Amino acid sequence: KDEFCGLERLSIEKEAIKNMLKTKNDVIGYISYSFRDVLYKKYKVPDEKLIPFINGIYKGSSRFNISVSTIINEIRKNRIPLDKDIIFCWGRCVYQKGYDLLISTYKKFFMKHKNYHLVLLMPVETSPKKYVNKIKKQISALPNDCISAIYDFRQNLPYCVLKHPNLKFIV
User: Fold this and answer.
1) Around Cβ 165, how many Cβ atoms within 10 Å?
2) pLDDT of residue 147
3) Is 125 strand, coil or helix?
4) What H or E segment, with its residue span, contains residue 118?
5) Which element (helix H / strand E) includes 147?
6) pTM reported for the whole predicted model
7) Measuring CA to CA, which of 11, 36, 47, 85 is 20 to 30 A from 2?
């Protein structure tokens, strides 16, 4: 339960979980260990009904087979410098992802570490407008040359930034 889920959604989720627990073949996937704990502790879903869908990109994945020219083109096209150390974060632009905390922390960090550049890939299609406005306001308070904010999904960009020669942090 968070500030964005309504009572109807919670009701539907509770009913779905209850019905899935009655069946032999249904399982419930979780995307993080904190979600697993909620399902296990609050909804009493037993371990044998829980399946991990932990989000991650593995270095050996074939999805990393991107040419050097594609990587350089994507990096240049998205105004990501090749001569700075990179901090990268990507995911939907929603409260739960904590972009507001990251940006305010980065602002303080950048004051002492001018050679860093923050790259945010945060699609806004499903984002609350109020949160997107807050993020854009925070970003506008930073120097343009220290951040790249991308507000729409770019399929190759995560892999390209992960191949960046100066990638230092992934948040």
Assistant:
1) 9
2) 97
3) coil
4) strand 116-121
5) strand 147-150
6) 0.70
7) 47
